[in-house]
Amino acid sequence: RTSMMLFTRDLRVRDNPALAAACRAERVVPVFVFDDALLDGPFAAPNRVRFLLDGLADLRESLRELGGDLVVRRGDPATEIARLAQETGAESLFLADERSRYATRRLSRLRDLPLRVTTHPGVTVVPPGDLAPAGGDHYRVFTPYWRAWDGRSRRPIARTPPSVRLPAGVRPGPLPRFADLASGATSRDLAAGGERAGRRRMADWLRDDAADYDRVHDDLAADRTSRLSPYLKFGCVSPRELDAAAPDGFRRQLAWRDFHHQVAAAFPSLATRDYRPRGHRWNLDEDAYTAWCEGRTGIPIVDAGMRQLHAEGYMHNRARLITASFLTRDLGIDWRRGLRHFNDRLADGDIADNAGNWQWVAGTGNSTRPSQVMNPHRQAARFDRGGDYVRRYLPELSDVDGPAVHRPWTLPEARRRALDYPPPITDP
Ligand code: FAD
Question: What does the record give as cofactor (predicted)?
Fold first, then answer.
């Protein structure tokens, strides 16, 4: 008997329940379909395409080591899967359970094929929809969700990858080149994708930094958070494995991630809908928006965050909060424009997490507690006390010592004029 394993955002061989189930058949066809509908849309940002291709090259190598290969196709997933089923005689299809609007549509088209289709958990720790409030429909607020999430029993972890036997005569097909999929440059210091790189990162972070997470995760200069978000985005590491190994403060962040996925599944318009009162006016100042995107607002802590995003395709969570708050609260610019800019650059850019967080910062969304404004000066004093984070990302201020780097406008006139750095565009 032959089965198919459709990889989507679960690019790993370890602790991948759908792959393990597919491999119980005598023969299995592991496949990834480059979906034109996604490649033509905002998903195809250069950093994410690069990260995806790294992940697929790594997955192919692992599947080869396990006795199989990765079959690569391009087109509409349902059409390509139907064709492969015909070619190989496969009778069943396995894939990860995912509930975004796009994934739900894809699944319903796959279910129309003459195949037994089974989904398995693996994208989140607790699948969206598994937890519901007593007597209610969906969780809208995090704290009760976290309590239920924390108390929920867990599936066992499958640490050993399965062996993979391909049916005879399947043509694996080449991986496309980056230039076939995306245009534009990737970030200079983008991390390498893939399960091997992700597992190395996970092991290093668990060994060196995890125990201190609660104390240091907000310290911008220390940079000691896990940086696992793009690996989680593409499933190169298993969230379930992290949940079993990491301290509670970190598990709470994983619960935030699950929460956003749960909310996005329950309220699919989350990414676009603005819940502000009718008549609310956004500031349409293009110059201010461009200054924000380019990290030239003249507020060093904001600019450092935006430059980190540009240089690495990643930004520290505290800087995401500060830059997002500055855009929406101080400049009064529509959060959806900020979301789009983040999504163009973030290797971990994910519609549920990005929109959920932007809404939270902008004080819209379904949270009952509109959050407070984060004053960038106070944030800088608290979370980049010595100014090292700013100096790391703003070379034009690297000679300004100590916390004075946060207020270059207070430097003596001559010194200030010698810096290639703009005055603040607003006084937050
Ligand atoms: P760690 O502190 O090591 O956290 C571990 C993991 O928990 C992260 O990898 C991530 O998967 C998850 N996590 C942590 N915080 C959050 C959170 N607030 N919401 C959801 N998951 C979380 N995260 C994304 O993965 N994709 C996004 O597109 C994204 N957009 C964001 C936009 C804004 C405006 C803000 C404020 C936050 C956004 N985040 C997003 C959440 C968070 O900033 C990143 O997950 C985190 O900075 C990644 O770094 P890390 O892996 O070192 O985090």
Answer: FAD
